[in-house]
Write a structure and sequence with these properties.
16 strands; 4-stranded parallel sheet; 8 helices; 5-stranded antiparallel sheet; alpha+beta
């Protein structure tokens, strides 16, 4: 019997995963949902490999489901809880040891299922998550990118600023949670390098030439399907993410064929099936040259977009193998 179960790896509260699971249930596709950080009585497993069985097999049990590894046809990797959260009550040494063992053991097997489709594989997400690598790949594929400087040198920033009318700063990653557990954000913002001091040398910074954009576009690619929305903030903010997302203005937009082809090649080059791309538009955006590639989130959010229902169905198509995914 052919494998048909979809393993959904995510935290308990994940509305986006809920939608995809509901779509798979409607198609009568078997689904097992798990959060690896539940390891313990609520998540048990026994996996074996040997000379007579060169691929991992065995059974995994959650509080409500169980599955043989050989039954798993696809793994949807969403937003699992970090393993460290499971062991927060232990001493630092015990916590770090248990976290590493869980990641290497349970995570190691879950990330090494033979002939299984991953959307997306964690190793591919990690490789594709570095902005310098993204920008170089965009350029290699013929996409327009903003002039970019990665530095911790004040003089380098000042020289870069002298070459461009305006420059912006944005972080490589989101802002981590503070000691109170709350997270914040640092948005893309125009900067004046004359205001910097020696603190710039403490870590790496990302500066780019500001694009004289006429709009922003979020492109969500799932397998062969492409969904694109032009996004505008009512106040015309440089970074549309900084305001109330419920007030954003969306409009469907057609992605030029050369850009679409480049995005498919981009995902394939990283071994990805899915990605959320951000573009800045210049002009009216009807030509490939008017699209400036900003970044790609290989595990981005899309549930807030107007075409979320269609994107949900695209995920269900991929995971149920009704559309061919990428390796």
């Amino acid at each position: 019997m052919a494998a048909s179960t979809v393993l959904v790896v995510t935290a308990l509260e994940d509305v986006t995963a809920d939608w995809v699971i509901a779509a798979l249930n409607e198609r009568e596709v078997p689904v097992v949902r798990l959060d690896p950080a539940d390891i313990g009585p609520a998540l048990t497993f026994g996996f074996r490999i040997g000379e007579d069985s060169p691929a991992w097999d065995g059974r995994l049990r959650t509080g409500s489901r169980e599955v043989e590894l050989g039954e798993v046809a696809a793994v949807y990797c969403r937003r699992p809880t970090p393993y460290a959260a499971r062991f927060g009550h232990l001493t630092a040494q015990q916590r770090d040891f248990c976290t590493a063992e869980a990641r290497q053991g349970l995570g190691g097997v879950l990330n090494d299922l033979h002939t299984t489709l991953y959307v997306n594989h964690p190793a591919a997400v990690t490789a594709a998550d570095f902005k310098p690598a993204q920008l170089r790949r965009f350029a290699e594929l013929g996409l327009t990118i903003p002039a970019t400087l990665v530095t911790n040198d004040i003089e380098a920033v000042r020289k870069f600023a002298a070459e461009h009318e305006h420059i912006i700063y944005k972080p490589f990653r989101g802002l981590p949670a503070g000691e109170d557990g709350h997270t914040g954000a640092i948005w893309a913002q125009r900067v004046n390098p004359d205001s910097f001091d020696t603190a710039l040398a403490v870590t790496a910074h990302l500066f780019q030439a500001e694009i004289p954009k006429t709009g922003d576009v979020r492109v969500t690619v799932v397998g062969t399907k492409v969904f694109a929305q032009k996004i505008a903030a009512p106040d015309g903010a440089l970074d549309w993410r900084r305001g109330n997302w419920d007030e954003l203005i969306h409009a469907p937009i057609t992605v030029p064929a050369p850009v679409q082809a480049a995005l498919h090649r981009y995902l394939a080059s990283f071994g990805l099936v899915f990605g959320c791309f951000d573009f800045a538009l210049t002009g009216d955006g009807d030509e490939a040259g008017h699209w400036t590639a900003i970044e790609c989130n290989p595990n981005g959010q899309w549930g807030w977009l107007p075409d979320a229902p269609a994107i949900t169905e695209a995920f269900a198509d991929i995971l149920s193998r009704k559309e061919r995914g990428r390796p």
